[in-house]
DNA sequence: TTGCCCATGTAATTTGTTACATGATTTA
DNA sequence: TAAATCATGTAACAAATTACATGGGCAA
């Protein structure tokens, strides 16, 4: 390990919360009390588009941790019921901690993309050209569906003045999906150019230089 | 659990490999033998931009699994050394399995994006407007750096005809970063529009708060 | 001779998923 | 009254990271 990397280590005893915890707390930072189930559904129609879509079990786990930390508080509906419906709300401590995380000077870090189609394009020498083209077309179709979902969410959020920032993020996401569509079209063109005129080498073997 | 979700369950005994295993095998699918260390460096200058950047320990673990499955084979340099340098190559079985995965009819699934800046924008009500603007600017600066890195990788791959598909993916990534830059600029504009007219009125300006 | 890069690996821990179990309420 | 949705949770496991340990080769 290099020295510069060493300097990135944590010295503090209290360990940092993972992004998921902050995201859950972030959902809670908007007015109202809600259940874990509701949080999950909400995330799937908002944060999913640019950040995160966790398993429901993960939401419940994070809510328990947040409550332990005093960042969230819950009230069950039935008095002494086992596993009763539980509505969560953010606490003052939670709001402060979240504001420190979201509005602090710490770097948000680079966006991380995991694009399965692109990995397959990168590995294009292993697939039939027509199969590759079909994958791109499927991707375009799905992206159109996603764009529609973003716009649906935007139609809801766009009305309410309290949702101004979420609407902003969704607007970004709308543009991002439009760009993804253009990227897909360009990819299809590039793919055709590779396959069509010159008929570039699709053979797997034969020697070649090592990368790097 | 709904019925439609139930149908997605696996019935097969042999469990599917995670994407990381296929990505490592994918790196190995290009001619030449290489060490885990080299694989990591290569991934960080290629797949990182659109798919994946694993911990080095994860690479070593996957290589061991791949060898156990008979998908990869290794040869150590020193004869009986402990922990000697180990160069890996893909096997025929590995190539077949990979081709089945990458070129098969299975859906690549939707791309997943984790954009820390956007989460913070979504949570904009918790931060100072100027801090938010600074974050966007930092993001633009970093994206410019990433774009330069993509182009550097492209300059290397673009020459060799064997790297035609990797070059295609990198070309996609170049365009994607250009789009990300435009998205960031638009976000800055939207942010200013949100902050400007509703905030303190500047008497000299009057109206027309949207900058070019 | 210090420090960086190359190179491989183990251990501990955390994060996150899938599968399972349970039951209430709502809708067709 | 059957099915879907709402709602919470546990258990097992898989994936992945961080920290640590080790040591060779090379260059300022």
Automatic annotation (TrEMBL), chains A, B:
Coiled coil: none annotated. InterPro entries: Tscrpt_reg_PadR_N, WH-like_DNA-bd_sf, WH_DNA-bd_sf. Residues 24-99 form the Transcription regulator PadR N-terminal domain. It holds the Pfam family PadR. It comes from the Bacteria. This is PadR family transcriptional regulator. The lineage of its organism: Bacteria, Bacillati, Actinomycetota, Actinomycetes, Kitasatosporales.
């Amino acid at each position: 390990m290099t020295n510069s990397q060493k300097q990135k280590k944590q010295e503090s005893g209290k360990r940092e919360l993972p992004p998921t915890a902050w995201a859950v707390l972030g959902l809670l930072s908007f007015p109202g009390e809600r259940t874990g189930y509701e949080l999950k559904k909400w995330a799937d129609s908002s944060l999913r588009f640019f950040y995160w879509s966790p398993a429901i079990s993960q939401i419940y786990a994070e809510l328990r941790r947040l409550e332990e930390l005093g960042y969230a508080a819950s009230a069950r509906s039935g008095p002494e019921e086992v596993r009763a419906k539980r509505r969560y709300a953010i606490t003052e401590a939670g709001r402060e901690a979240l504001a420190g995380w979201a509005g602090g000077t710490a770097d948000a870090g680079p966006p991380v993309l995991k694009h399965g189609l692109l990995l397959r394009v990168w590995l294009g020498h292993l697939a039939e050209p027509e199969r590759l083209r079909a994958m791109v077309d499927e991707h375009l179709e799905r992206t159109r569906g996603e764009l529609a979902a973003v716009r649906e969410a935007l139609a809801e959020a766009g009305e309410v003045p309290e949702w101004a920032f979420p609407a902003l993020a969704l607007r970004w996401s709308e543009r991002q999906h439009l760009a993804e569509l253009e990227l897909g079209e360009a990819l299809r063109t590039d793919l055709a150019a590779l396959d069509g005129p010159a008929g570039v080498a699709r053979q797997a073997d034969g020697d070649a230089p090592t990368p790097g």
